[in-house]
Each structure stands twice: as C-alpha cells, then as structure tokens.
Design a protein that fits this description.
258 residues, alpha/beta, Alpha-D-Glucose-1,6-Bisphosphate, Chain A, domain 3, 4-stranded mixed sheet
Amino acid sequence: MADVSDIKFGTDGWRGVMAREFTFDNVRRVGQAVAEWMKGQPGPKPPVIIGYDRRFSSDAFAAELAKVLAANQLKVTVCSEPLPTPAVTLLTQKLKAVGLVVTASHNPPSHNGIKIKLQGRPAGEAVTQAVEALIDRAHPARVGGEPVGSKSYMKDYVAYLKSRTSPEKWLKDLKRPVVVDYLHGASGGVMAEILPKNRLIEIRAGRDPLFGGVNPEPIEENLGALKKAVVDNKALLGIAIDGDGDRVAIIDDQGRYL
C-alpha cells in the first residue's frame, strides 16, 4: 500500500498515475476517508452521486468507490454512463447530494483522479484537507449497506443546458455549421441533443481511453483537427471541450485559436 503522503488533494480532488498512485487500494482509502468526513457532519447524511469519465477503468473505479461508501451506510447512486463533471456538479445542487467524479480532467490518459463536488461547486480546501486528514483513520469497509443504485442523468443535464441557452431563440439564425471537438471526452454527443444535425459537425466524439494520442486539453497545440474541420466546412466556429467537460476553447471561422 502506498504511503499516506502519496495521496494529496488539490483544489477539489486528488489525481495520480494509474497503477502507481491511482490504484484500487488507494481509491478505497479515499472512499473511506470521504465516508468518515460525511459521518462526522451534523444532521442527516445526504445521498452520494458518483460519476465517471471515459478513461480506462473509470467505471470500475467508480463501482469500487461506491461499494466502500455504501458499506458505510450511505445511500449511493452511480451514473449509468460517463457524464461530464458539470453534470455531477449540477446534481449536487438539484439532489442536495455529495458528488464524486472519477476523472483526471484534461490530464494524460495514464492519469485518473477523484473530484469532490458540493452544493453546485467544487469542494473547498477546508473539505478536501479534512478528507485528506482522514485517510487511513479507518480500514475501508466493503461489506453491508444498501445496494448501490444506478441511474442515467444525461437527460437532466441536457434539459439544464437547454434551459440556460434557450436554443429555440437563436437556432433559426444559425446559417453555418458549428464544429464541436469532444477530444474523446465525457461530453461526447451532448451537443447533438441541443443543435440540429444539419448545423452540427462532431469530431473525436467516440470513446478512446488514449484520446487519439492527444491529451484531452483544449489548448491550441491539441486542436489541429478542429482548426482544419472549421476551415474545410466553412463553419461559423469551433468549440473544443476537455476530457471531463468543464473547460472549453473556441476556434474562429478563420481557424484561429481565441
């Protein structure tokens, strides 16, 4: 087992290289620490929503995390498909839940991580430091508790996006296509639920745990394919979305990175 010092939380979570720092054992340790923190809070315990991205074994890590939390007598639901991090963040507010997301965001494919979300935003440093301090306070539980639930929340997320963008007000004026580059991340296909097919061109939308050999970070050096697609299709603009859907970049109609 890795030393406790190997698990350090950043702004809203912890990440590491898979099979080195980010292992099933360490995921269980973090899960138990989150459970200890939740059990230490006053009042009824909120439900836990666990999401995950398209990285290698993210769904398996999410299932193991859920098993530990459920064994601590917490009500846990795992998303039934990969979901962008902002969707889980939204659910923490809508369902008054604690959100955990298995993702390493825009980092290389060898990495994975766990983000903590509360009240519609990233968990603050006080929370992440408290969780970090509770690592190895108790041995990870894995038996008992209520069965872990599974549910699709993609429709909830799409409905929220539509409510915030009101596409019916501006789609009629969209005369040229928009190119969306998902960088093989968890947002793949989301924009197809908002934009009409004849005004949308999607690239790198499918799951690829290696992200096509390009880190899923929407910086200019990774967006050659998007620039080309915008120019070739005479598109209005290009939108790149990172691996877990919480940051974007824009390419203008001349193929320039903004």
